[in-house]
Design brief:
The protein has one domain: Alpha-Beta Complex (2-enoyl-CoA Hydratase, Chain A, domain 1), CATH 3.90.226.10. Helices cover 49% and strands 17% of the residues. α1 runs parallel beside α3 and α2 packs antiparallel against α3. The radius of gyration is 18 Å and the shape is globular. It comes from Buddleja alternifolia.
Length: 247
């Protein structure tokens, strides 16, 4: 589902899929739990100067919530309501992933080397920086196409991260499949690169450059939370007041 590697003060979280045939990295309860466990380990080992890069294997960064899992739960229960309840549970569980990333005491970079859809796109956007390949993959908020409204914290994060009202409209009210160059213009993506390898290289370089600043992790997380007050309020993340240690 995911692996965590540590290179000095750099953490690398890789979405691996549950099998060779499962490379969409859909966010089932088990995948969400694995990601949160990895992020908890990152937090426990964090030092000033740490940074996180999140990447994935295969053609997808993440294809959002695992709707097949929800349907299977409904089929076992013989109830469509059970399937809907399981999807609501995944929406609730995923709040924790977004909260973990927004409060992580270090810079975070997402290397998007494939499709990022719905909750998968929110996963990428929960990082401080997003790099994307222009050779393959799209960003896609699919909720309108499947007849689903956006969870409140999705909307709050999109408002906090995308400054242009027109870009927000195009992303969520046209269900556009946004490629890398357009994503840069919309302010979703920091930079576009020709290949998946170049995306990962750029993400690693950015994380290493930021880590070299050796900022206080507590101060970094506190400033980040203050920068996105609406979504952090919804997620129950409180502002922290951090003062210089040498006063």
């Amino acid at each position: 589902m995911c692996t965590l590697e540590k290179r000095g003060s750099l953490f690398i979280l890789t979405l691996t899929g549950e099998s060779d045939q499962d490379q969409e990295h859909r966010l089932s309860p088990s995948v969400i739990s694995a990601v949160r466990s990895a992020l908890a380990e990152v937090r426990s080992q964090a030092v000033d100067g740490s940074a996180l890069v999140t990447l994935s294997q295969g053609k997808f960064f993440s294809n959002g919530f695992d709707l097949k899992h929800a349907q299977a739960v409904g089929a076992r229960a013989g109830s469509a309501e059970a399937a809907k309840a399981e999807l609501r549970r995944m929406v609730d569980l995923f709040r924790g992933v977004v909260a973990d990333l927004l409060s992580l005491p270090m810079p975070t970079v997402a290397a998007v080397t494939g499709h990022a859809a719905a909750a998968g796109l929110l996963l990428a956007m929960s990082h401080d920086y997003v790099m994307m390949t222009s050779s393959r993959g799209v960003m896609y908020m699919s909720e309108l196409d499947i007849g689903m409204t956006l969870p409140d914290y999705f909307t709050a994060l999109i408002r906090g991260k995308i400054g242009s009202a027109a870009a927000r409209r195009d992303l969520v009210l046209t269900a556009a499949k946004v490629r890398a160059t357009a994503a840069v213009e919309m302010g979703i993506v920091e930079s576009a690169h020709d290949s998946a390898e170049e995306v990962v290289d750029a993400a690693m370089r950015r994380a290493e450059e930021l880590g070299k600043r050796r900022w206080s992790g507590k101060a970094y997380a506190g400033i980040r939370k203050a920068l996105y007050p609406e979504v952090c309020g919804m997620l129950g993340l409180k502002d922290d007041v951090v003062l210089p240690t040498k006063l």
